[in-house]
Amino acid sequence: MVELKTDTSIDAMYEAGQVVARALTAAQKAADVGVSLLELDEVAHGVLREAGATSPFLGYRPSFAPTPFPAVLCVSVNDAIVHGIPGRYRLRDGDLVSIDFGAELGGWVGDSALSFVVGTPRAADLRLIETAERALAAGIGAAVVGNRIGDIAHAIGTVCRGAGYGIPDGFGGHGIGRRMHEDPGVPNEGRPGRGMRLRHGMVLAIEPMVVAGGTDDFHAAPDGWTLKTNDGSRAAHAEHTVAITDSGPRILTAR
């Protein structure tokens, strides 16, 4: 069931989204050669505490997970696509890092992600990240009243496939509101004109993921959470929480 949010509720979701935006900005700024992933998680946790917000990630356990998620920040490095658990690994020059973060404030949730390179970037990694960001922008551009979920999916997939990249099979965006994952699902590839019609008050987390090697296959790491590319190629991830409004898409997690 899809819950349509009131304008007042969307404003409240914006406040949660801005906590997410501040945490991602702080974590990216802290990411440097020699910094551990656990340290990045603590930076993000500090933003939560300062805002009086809580984490929808910490303790979250979907059906596929062997254990509850143990952190507030997902940190996925190089060939990790999403859901990376922060550990003692220390960042190295040239690492491609994707960070994903959520915050709950006043009963509403925001969710966003970004990718970047630590230290000296490779041109191929910058192109991968830029494609994920373009795909996100295309998806947001299609998130208008009267369009359908398939229009968002098609916009994202066209950018990703056009660049020659893979799209992890079965993973995409989702509705969001009182809970982190709500209906409807938002695929990263699909046919235009298909699926649920978009209405004022729908709020979606739109999140393209791209795999440099061009394949869609992935596997779970031994921790049961981290999803990694089968071919060992690098991946990038971009995400915003977006409200569908009569005046156009409103990015609630804008940085």
TrEMBL record:
Record note on cofactor: Binds 2 divalent metal cations per subunit. Has a high-affinity and a low affinity metal-binding site. The true nature of the physiological cofactor is under debate. The enzyme is active with cobalt, zinc, manganese or divalent iron ions. Most likely, methionine aminopeptidases function as mononuclear Fe(2+)-metalloproteases under physiological conditions, and the catalytically relevant metal-binding site has been assigned to the histidine-containing high-affinity site.
One Gene Ontology term of the molecular function aspect: initiator methionyl aminopeptidase activity
Cofactor(s) for this UniProt protein: Co(2+); Zn(2+); Mn(2+); Fe(2+)
Catalytically driven reaction(s): Release of N-terminal amino acids, preferentially methionine, from peptides and arylamides
EC primary class: hydrolase
Residues noted as binding a divalent metal cation 2 in the record, renumbered to the chain: 111, 174, 207, 239
EC number: 3.4.11.18
Peptidase M24 domain sequence ranges: 12-246
Sequence positions that bind substrate: 83, 181
Binding site residues for a divalent metal cation 1: 100, 111, 239
Family from the record: Belongs to the peptidase M24A family. Methionine aminopeptidase type 1 subfamily.
Oligomer status and interactors: Monomer.
The protein's role, per its UniProt record: Removes the N-terminal methionine from nascent proteins. The N-terminal methionine is often cleaved when the second residue in the primary sequence is small and uncharged (Met-Ala-, Cys, Gly, Pro, Ser, Thr, or Val). Requires deformylation of the N(alpha)-formylated initiator methionine before it can be hydrolyzed.
Descriptive protein name: Methionine aminopeptidase
Species of the source: Streptomyces violaceochromogenes
Protein's gene: map
